[in-house]
Amino acid sequence: MQSKLPNVGTTIFTKMALLAKKHSAINLAQGFPEFGMPEFLQERLAAHTKLGRNQYAPSPGLPILQEQIAALVERCYQNTVNPSESVTITSGATEALFVAIQAFVEQGDEVIVFDPAYDSYAPAIKLAGGKSIHIALRSPNFKIDWDEVRSKVSKKTSVIMLNTPHNPCGSVIDENDLKELKDIVLKNGLILISDEVYEHIIFDNKKHLSINTDPELFEHSVVLSSFGKTFHCTGWKMGYCVAPKELTTEFRKVHQFVTFSSFTPAQFALAEMLEQYPEHISALGAFYQDKRDVLVNALQTTSFKPLPCYGSYFLNVDYSAVSDKNDIEFSEILTEEFGVATIPISVFYDKAPNDKILRLCFAKNENTLLQATEKLAQL
Ligand SMILES: Cc1ncc(COP(=O)(O)O)c(C=O)c1O
């Protein structure tokens, strides 16, 4: 049998988690919060399960949750969408990404992917019969070179994958990026898949430039998000897709055959959370900015140099002052000998530059971040 994904093996996340466990290292590798989720959500999940809301939800999602998401999109980005026609609940953003790619990428299509990229994009594109056209973003700012994008768009290009705020770069798009992106998408008749799972985790008074803010570009886009990031419940695997009616129709054709529908009691609980605690979302940026600042300040006592981070819960550090080993080797040494697990960012590239950069997750308690930096200070 020939593998459909011959180059896919055990991911670095699994590898690093195992290595961290084996060496009792502090795990700043995997991107999940160390702290609990809002109690209200936990209670409502239990309540709805007890109330017997345990059967299939409608495939596009529960209307009350679709309505709350439409209200959120209106409040945050002034985009008015019809909840039943434009909002689809998915089993995490990973499902939404997979579905969107299967829905819009045909055999032989080319898809623009900015590296470093979330690891599910390229395999999903390959399974759809498409070809990823990788464009490497360069440290320390990881800005998109729009002339390079124009030079790589061809007659075969059908989709651009965007991620803002960006994992693992911590970068965000600005007004000029949005303008350039719009120009390219509209002129070439492309579809934009916009991965905005960290939409509410943005710092330094920057505004998240969601594709929802641009009515014309939105008409050609699907915007994906994740409740896992927003409500500290990555294990719930709950996400959603907001898109114009025509694209939503195609998206749902695939979604119904991937999962049909997503976890019913969680949909009830999330709808109530969104309605009753809007302040959770408005406070999320400040909550994570404090954590970023704790880590950045503590790193001043080490030889690791933090790179700019404007959003997401990841901070990249340049370790070139400490070692000239490549990032994979160095991350293993850090875990095994110094007790801190991180992710080498070369794994997010198709062709990695020879950077000396590691990704640190700061969705952790202050103590964990301080203990980790104490260990890093030994180098
Ligand atoms: C950029 C990006 N997109 C998508 C996802 C997937 O989100 P979910 O856990 O909701 O599937 C993640 C999770 O780490 C991510 O970092």
- What is the helix tally? 15
Give the low-pLDDT segments.
Answer: none
The CATH topology of the largest domain, please? Aspartate Aminotransferase, domain 2
Let me know the number of strands. 13
The CATH superfamily name of the largest domain is Type I PLP-dependent aspartate aminotransferase-like (Major domain)
Strand arrangement in the largest pleated sheet: 2-8-7-6-5-3-4
Write up what this structure looks like.
The protein has helices spanning 12-22, 39-50, 63-77, 83-86, 92-104, 121-127, 146-152, 175-188, 215-218, 227-230, 245-258, 264-276, 278-299, 327-338, 366-376, and strands spanning 26-27, 87-90, 110-115, 131-136, 157-163, 191-195, 221-226, 239-242, 305-306, 314-318, 340-341, 343-344, 357-361. The relative contact order is 0.18. It has 379 residues and is of the alpha/beta class. The protein has 15 helices and 13 strands. The termini are far apart. The strands form three sheets. Strands 2-8-7-6-5-3-4 form a seven-stranded mixed beta sheet, with helices on both faces. A four-stranded antiparallel beta sheet has the order 9-10-13-12. The radius of gyration is 20 Å and the shape is globular. It folds into two domains: 12-37 and 280-376, Aspartate Aminotransferase, domain 1; 53-277, Type I PLP-dependent aspartate aminotransferase-like (Major domain) (Aspartate Aminotransferase, domain 2, 3-Layer(aba) Sandwich). Bound molecules: pyridoxal-5'-phosphate.
